[in-house]
Amino acid sequence: VSPDEEGICSGKYFTEAGLVGLLEQAAASFSMAGMYEAVNEVYKVLIPIHEANRDAKKLSTIHGKLQEAFSKIVHQVMTCIFSCTPVEGLWSFPSPECAFVSPTPISGGCILMFSFNVFGFYGERFGEDVLEVIKDSNPVDKCKLDPNKAYIQITYVEPYFDTYEMKDRITYFDKNYNLRRFMYCTPFTLDGRAHGELHEQFKRKTILTTSHAFPYIKTRINVIHKEEIILTPIEVAIEDMQKKTQELAFATHQDPADPKMLQMVLQGSVGTTVNQGPLEVAQVFLCEIPNDPKLFRHHNKLRLCFKDFTKR
Questions:
Q1: Which residues form a coiled coil (predicted)?
Q2: Are residues 90 and 221 part of one domain?
């Protein structure tokens, strides 16, 4: 409701019944959107009002809806973890440069479809002959771009959390709500190739911060800050081993147990068919103590990662 509107304080919404009506509408909308944790937060405001009015009928209805919401949260946790990280699209025009993050539903080829839609949208406005798609997520050298063309660069990003944030973001809802920072990774080597041997494989993490948090009224939000982190080959190996260990831990602790998931994880980590599995990582980085003292900490961390991995 708008505070500037004349007579708003005497309107139907500016009453206890009006507030209750708006909150009930909000709870129903959150439930339809599958945001059941938010349903609970709305009812936390409603319950004291009905308790004060001794309205047992309304309280009974609310508690029934809360039971339904929490049952769905339990079901959601069992089915969605590890498969529902939102896929985002990012595109930018180098001159003037702008970037957006836009959530799209997860499905096969969703980035391809997203690219097609964006290309069609801007193609109608600029003309398809002046529009060009940059097909990788590497940094763009603006000097090499044609000033008479518009360029679109699209990649997918995933939510980014600092280590301290992960202590509070435990549930599926926590990890997919109130998101402002997103990340995408670009592999590279010092000689310009995208992929190389383990000892020369670097990784660039690009972290984007949006002006507002998702979910939001708008489906595309401007990127207001961008930072880059460069991981050295041994740091890339540490991250890969940590990821494999997490996947293994998840697969062995599923309830009910899922042998297919376990088999897939084991094939991808232990019985890997490519020559860059854990054994290769150990042979490249752990055979000898590094000469550079700066690498001692990383060397030790990788050893501990392997210790944890073998335990799993």
A1: none
A2: yes
